Amino acid sequence: MSNALLVIPARLGAWLIRGTRIAGAMALLTLDIFRCLFRYRLRWNLLVEQIYFVGVRSTFVILTTGAFTGAVFAAQVHFQFVRLGMESAVGPTVSVAMCRELGSVLCCLLLAGRVGASMAAEIASMKITEQLDALRSMGVYPTEYLVVPRFLAMMISTPILTAVAIAVGIGCAYIVAVPILGVDGAYYWDNTVKFTEFTDVAIGVSKGFLFGMIIAIVSCYKGLNPRLGTAGVGQTTTEAVVMSSLSLLVSNFFFTFILNNLFLGN
After folding, report:
1. Positive/negative CA dihedral, 223, 64, 90, 202
2. Is the pLDDT of residue 2 over 70?
3. In the predicted model, is pLDDT for residue 4 greater than 70?
4. Measuring CA to CA, which residue among 100, 92, 73, 97 is closest to residue 256?
């Protein structure tokens, strides 16, 4: 009985120590990335290649996500507001929600699955097959060659994709609310413009920027520290997606307070 009581604190302590070690390693990787930005010449060809992969090739997924999120949310809000005679409030409600939360969070969760998994798998494969050692033997620093272009590509592409998801979501919400559900278009659009401010868009885009950094750091860290063995790449990829997604959801809570205080003074 006494041994059983010691198991839980022992496992909790081991989990906390492992979490602290991983957080410290990610912080060191982040510092190393910024050091490489000033120490080495930027490889523009690799950066453009990564922007194409992260930004252009993710466009369809982001458009679909933004469109159906806005459409479904508009329908649900209308079903509730119509009972209160507040149909004209559907537009600003959907718009502010898409700008502040839904656009950035859902867009980046999709990117964590599509782009983060790819980053972790590619770097982990290179690590397991000793290609990273080959780079070092040729005088190429892996962080500068592999991590920096991916990190910058996420910083550039994610805010743009977030803005696209927000715009498409608001547009599709209008289509659902006005032509399909019969909300007055003039009141809908007038209230949407009246109650949606630039700071709402700034909060969403800022979250996309910060989430992009988190996805890149977590995915590259997992890729540089893969599990060994034949199943190592698969397990590393899964862990990268799960860790990135959880990090986004947890950090979103804190970013909400910080950005609202910064942009709105709340």
Report:
1. positive
2. no
3. no
4. 100
The model carries a pTM of 0.90
- Higher pLDDT among residues 85 and 70, named by residue: 70
CA distance linking residue 168 with residue 106, whole number of Å: 13
Single-letter amino acid code for the residue at 29 = L
180, two tokens = 């399909």
Residues 66, 172: contact at Cβ < 8 Å? yes
* Span 105-145, pLDDT tens digits: 999 999 999 999 999 999 999 988 889 999 999 999 999 99
Q: How far is residue 230's CA from residue 266's CA, in Å, rounded to a whole number?
A: 51
Q: Is 49 exposed, middle or buried (0-12, 13-18, 19+ CB in 10 A)?
A: middle
CA atoms within 13 A on the CB side of 132: 17
Q: What is the DSSP letter of 87?
A: G
Find the DSSP H helices in 82-228: 90-97, 103-111, 117-128, 131-137, 142, 148-175, 185-195, 198-224
Instruction: Provide φ and ψ at 159, rounded to 5°.
Output: -60, -35
Report the alpha-carbon distance of residue 24 to residue 27 in Å, rounded: 5
Largest CA distance in the chain: 70
pLDDT at residue 15 is higher than 80: yes
pLDDT, tens digit, 9 for 90 and up, residues 209-235? 999 999 999 999 999 998 877 677 888
